[in-house]
Known about the structure:
Largest sheet of chain A: 7 strands, mixed
Largest sheet of chain B: 6 strands, mixed
Distance between the termini of chain A: 37 Å
Order of helices and strands of chain B: EEEEEEEEEEEE
Oligomer: heterodimer
Number of helices of chain A: 0
Structural class of chain B: mainly beta
Shape of chain B: globular
Order of helices and strands of chain A: EEEEEEEEEEE
Distance between the termini of chain B: 41 Å
Structural class of chain A: mainly beta
Shape of chain A: globular
Radius of gyration of chain A: 14 Å
Number of helices of chain B: 0
Helix content of chain B: under 10%
Helix content of chain A: under 10%
Strand content of chain A: over 45%
Largest interface: A-B, 33 and 25 residues
Radius of gyration of chain B: 14 Å
Amino acid sequence: NAGVMQNPRHLVRRRGQEARLRCSPMKGHSHVYWYRQLPEEGLKFMVYLQKENIIDESGMPKERFSAEFPKEGPSILRIQQVVRGDSAAYFCASSSTWTSGTRTYTQYFGPGTRLTVL
Amino acid sequence: AQSVAQPEDQVKVAEGNPLTVKCTYSVSGNPYLFWYVQYPNRGLQFLLKYITGDNLVKGSYGFEAEFNKSQTSFHLKKPSALVSDSALYFCAVRDTGTGTASKLTFGTGTRLQVTL
């Protein structure tokens, strides 16, 4: 029973390049969340998606950042024209649509992608 | 908007002693509260949650947490700490959105150090 998968685990980009981070949710989960963790800080919510829909993007920077969760395939967090301040760990989480049971409301996290911008 | 406070950046305890990691919250409705643990260069692992019911919640690896509505607290506890418990602990509160899915707001984390 595979957990949340993220790749790549480490990504190095030069300033101005694009970064693409991928997330495959747990089997049976249709809700995906992206969080960012800056060094020595807690996690900050970025965006919440369901298949083909962005539900809440209140934590996404207004420029250069976008996210999608297509009907087929993983969720993608895309950062265009990266800057040094984008260096962080990006975590994806997923949750189910169950309305009862022990897993209700729980978000399960992937191992993260650590982005370094040179 | 909801918020979570973890007043201690670091907690040190000796192995075998009880440990407490503190968390207080602020929400407008019923609180849905979570504890996660993060080991170095790893993702977050779910420990336990409070949704409703008993105020004492039991979770993974011998951890438990006590929900106290009057004090708006959700402290994480373990009767006997292990060196392997040393990690970064995060308290989180779920946004009071609709349905079963909604974003989490995290505290800043508490680094637990268990010494021999």
